[in-house]
Amino acid sequence: MSLRVGVIGLGVMGADHARVLQGEVRGAHLAATCDPVGECSHRDPHEMIEVVDAVVIASPDATHADLALACLAAGKPVLCEKPLGATAAEAWRVVEAEVALGRRLVQVGYMRRFDPAYLAMKACDVGEPALLHNIHRNAQAPDWFVGAMPITNSLVHEIDISRWLLDDEITEARVVGQDPMLVTMQTAKGVLISTEVFMNAAYGYHVHAELVGRAGTVAMAQPTRVLTNRAGAHGHGYPMNWVPRFAEAYRAQMNAFVAGARSGSLAGASAWDGYAATAIAEQIIPGLASGLPQTITLPAKPQLYEA
Amino acid sequence: MSLRVGVIGLGVMGADHARVLQGEVRGAHLAATCDPVGECSHRDPHEMIEVVDAVVIASPDATHADLALACLAAGKPVLCEKPLGATAAEAWRVVEAEVALGRRLVQVGYMRRFDPAYLAMKACDVGEPALLHNIHRNAQAPDWFVGAMPITNSLVHEIDISRWLLDDEITEARVVGQDPMLVTMQTAKGVLISTEVFMNAAYGYHVHAELVGRAGTVAMAQPTRVLTNRAGAHGHGYPMNWVPRFAEAYRAQMNAFVAGARSGSLAGASAWDGYAATAIAEQIIPGLASGLPQTITLPAKPQLYEA
Amino acid sequence: MSLRVGVIGLGVMGADHARVLQGEVRGAHLAATCDPVGECSHRDPHEMIEVVDAVVIASPDATHADLALACLAAGKPVLCEKPLGATAAEAWRVVEAEVALGRRLVQVGYMRRFDPAYLAMKACDVGEPALLHNIHRNAQAPDWFVGAMPITNSLVHEIDISRWLLDDEITEARVVGQDPMLVTMQTAKGVLISTEVFMNAAYGYHVHAELVGRAGTVAMAQPTRVLTNRAGAHGHGYPMNWVPRFAEAYRAQMNAFVAGARSGSLAGASAWDGYAATAIAEQIIPGLASGLPQTITLPAKPQLYEA
Amino acid sequence: MSLRVGVIGLGVMGADHARVLQGEVRGAHLAATCDPVGECSHRDPHEMIEVVDAVVIASPDATHADLALACLAAGKPVLCEKPLGATAAEAWRVVEAEVALGRRLVQVGYMRRFDPAYLAMKACDVGEPALLHNIHRNAQAPDWFVGAMPITNSLVHEIDISRWLLDDEITEARVVGQDPMLVTMQTAKGVLISTEVFMNAAYGYHVHAELVGRAGTVAMAQPTRVLTNRAGAHGHGYPMNWVPRFAEAYRAQMNAFVAGARSGSLAGASAWDGYAATAIAEQIIPGLASGLPQTITLPAKPQLYEA
Ligand SMILES: [Mg+2]
Ligand SMILES: [Mg+2]
Ligand SMILES: [Mg+2]
Ligand SMILES: [Mg+2]
């Protein structure tokens, strides 16, 4: 039986998740949609949750935690767009509820874990990890991108993928600059992480990483299938936003969610991972003003999330 | 309803098609298998054809045409591994039968048409095509790879992809060398095609192409997602055969076949394309001994295959 | 003592040779110049030859052979721009005169032999050579570039560098197309050579080569020191003519000529090599019209040119 | 007249400078050498300084400042290997002496300023500089490389090249890690600098940089002329130390020194630059233990060093 999936929120991300569910996923179909204003099958997300087998949350960040809690209450697997909560406290409520339930129903949409380039990096043996360079460049920051949003909205991706690539926990961080911003982090195992976040890099959307190990390094190749010679130049183009860059990752993420929902064993970022990314980001923010290193602490990881 | 697909022949290619059908295809499932010796649901391919909605032919080349004809007789869509026939005459019989039937049921497994790199090349505007460079390197030729097989088994891929990339027909060809072999072809529109076929290139399996247009060129990027620095060297590895290189193409080809079989409108290489590749290869072979240019002629393309 | 060098012909190439002699060469200086119209020290090349220690010929092609003969008569080392003669017969007269003299005084300006990329290719071990791909693209052919000039003026560079890279002799050639033109050559040792010559490639000046051996291949890297991300694109620019691409080669060639002139032992392309390139080009031309393979023959190489 | 140059110290660097002077420099020759034990023309550097026109100092670091002062006293142009002094105080004595003399005679051997890749980066327009990524990897640290030497011996190169690329002054720095070490610096104009120094990177010697501007970025291309396909892999090799990587830079640096000594107008890093690199390094060191950001201050730049 094909899994009936409902999508809450039909903005850019929600519409794309719906498109993937309609044409690129095996074992599931788009069964319901919910949006406060757009064309959809439901206005009330709670009613929608009742009539589907699994849920995708792509509504505004402030609603993520409550809707995830509702899915947990209904016993429905849920793919929740990042962040899991608008605050670490909100995200922690989801973790607590899932722990109380005793089984994992929440996957958080840190889609990079399904990107072929990051997967190839993780699979590559370069010896014990020593240092990770992350680069995160947007062509142009949207108007509403203010205050600590480079940290809460962009850096969280780098926090999540660094934790995943290194299988390690972040213990210290320091920020210098605003845009670009340079974030230096350290991990429990002593690995260094250097991250550039540049919201107005002008030339295009570009995510890059290089992992430096004690036996070598592995870095992403340029994100292209073809190279052109045209008008005096050799090379390739960049997309202007993240959608083309991570199209394969979104498709693979949804297929993994569907497979996990059907088998009862979810993959990808857990509620714990979603909480961790937001909690770490929150603890980094005070250093934005002071320029001083911040010590990062997390509560003990609940047993439910041990491999 | 999920399309019931049966696979005939469970060698390397057939087993891989079966694997794709079991885990990577939307709207279809593996419903039957047929092999003379292996574990399978049917020994007789004709009996298997009766009980499925669509067929994949991956049995020995000598059986392709007859099995495709049986599928046409049964009105079942068929994805036939290349070549469509062991000879052009055999392939032509399939074309004639399909034309007599009056609708297309045959897709030929020239999977490169679904490879993201070739698709990106075709989508790229470099002005009017002027010249195409193809490179086809195998690490090591199998024992049974003798005589004209570099032409009938390997060059056919280059013939098909050149016709598809250029949307043009080959009219002349000349071969020099044996291994490597250099094949120079010309098309009806005056485009030049240079193709290296090297069956014992030693270093790995590597397919490359560069299309030269009057406004620029487009070439495949190196086939990798990541680049390493290890043991004194920078770069990436090659696979030792075609399976990893074209894994995405095989998956996309099968999805396209399933979608086409369901909608009644097949994509990919047609029976005419399958015939053309083999007919052109046959006409190139006499030049292998003489080293002289060979004029290539094809019959008029039946109306059924006009776009 | 610094070598007194005189340059005959102050067009693009001659002016550049003069510039190199004034600022980038060790052990020599620009002592005289000769041009029919421009500012220079001499109008009569023969008078100029008398008063210098070594000569650079960069006058029109039709004058090369006679001036080289004058240098031989005067016992002066000479760097003669390619071609050595407007015809093979003319070039042969230079060879004969040098052989009669019994010592080498002529170096021909096939500067690619001093290009770091070609030198690195030649130094690289890829097993026994099997095939060489050459690509020669100009942004736009000059007005005066007509008839067989893609062969006599451009392909000669590919002929010379192929003979040098492979240490082998060309025995057969076939041309298809006009612009681009595809030239397939074969050598005495059985190596295949595929050469694209495209005089109106539009995007820039670009020379590329890949040598395919029985243990691997070696190709030029993209000709750049830096890569940029700008305005939606990644990559680098091409020059619009050969001067920037081969600036290092011209400098190294002149230094080698000066060192050879001082030591009495010239390096680089010899008069024999200059003759061979032009003689092979002449024998290729008839095939331009017929499209048929041409057998190439050269006289026995005089003992003077044996290593 | 050819400039008579004497080299003090015939270790790895001194021997290479002597080699360059003997065969790759225009307008100068190796006239004298001085070493405490090796084969040379002089044992006493002060005697050697008397008999030459210009001096190269490549003796142990502890001797640099005193020998540079001796050259200043003798009025002889000097190319002093980095660092200019074993301490900032020593280097400052050289600055003071040169200022007292009132003309520049000292060039410091920060050879990267003559590297074609760095020069191409500096020439590239990517808008106002915003961030600079430096990577400095050695295959294996020598035994004697202890304590703060990654900062005083390796990071000084990054300090110098960053100041030169950005035409800016460093005002703050923080170090995390030991090997690799990650150094975050900030400049007077607000540019961020991220530098990895990894003394035991295992795979080879590798220096890389990317400059991020507000209109784009420019990075070094991989340091190779050719790319190979061999034994299952594509790519190129790294050298195991800095000599091959910077061979062109050393040659160009010496030619610039000779030209500057002859014309009376030195290029390259000045005594002020040499002092600055060492003074900045010294101020960074305390942060190695504390992990805290260090404020960097320099005295006012003497008028002599204004452009
Ligand atoms: Mg996301
Ligand atoms: Mg196939
Ligand atoms: Mg030339
Ligand atoms: Mg140095």
TrEMBL record, chains A, B, C, D:
Name the SUPFAM superfamilies for this protein. Answer: Glyceraldehyde-3-phosphate dehydrogenase-like, C-terminal domain, NAD(P)-binding Rossmann-fold domains
Q: Do you know which Pfam families this protein is assigned to? A: GFO_IDH_MocA (PF01408), GFO_IDH_MocA_C (PF02894)
Transmembrane stretches in the record are none
* InterPro entries tied to this protein: Gfo/Idh/MocA-like_OxRdtase_C, Gfo/Idh/MocA-like_OxRdtase_N, NAD(P)-bd_dom_sf
GO CC field: cytoplasm
Q: Which UniProt keywords apply?
A: Oxidoreductase
Query: Which residue intervals define the domain Gfo/Idh/MocA-like oxidoreductase C-terminal in the entry?
Result: 151-284
Q: Which residues form the Gfo/Idh/MocA-like oxidoreductase N-terminal domain?
A: 3-110
GO MF annotation terms:
nucleotide binding; oxidoreductase activity
**Does the record's keyword annotation contain Oxidoreductase?**
yes
One GO biological process term is: NADPH regeneration
Record-stated family: Belongs to the Gfo/Idh/MocA family.
Instruction: Identify this protein by name.
Output: Gfo/Idh/MocA family oxidoreductase
Species the sequence originates in: Stagnihabitans tardus
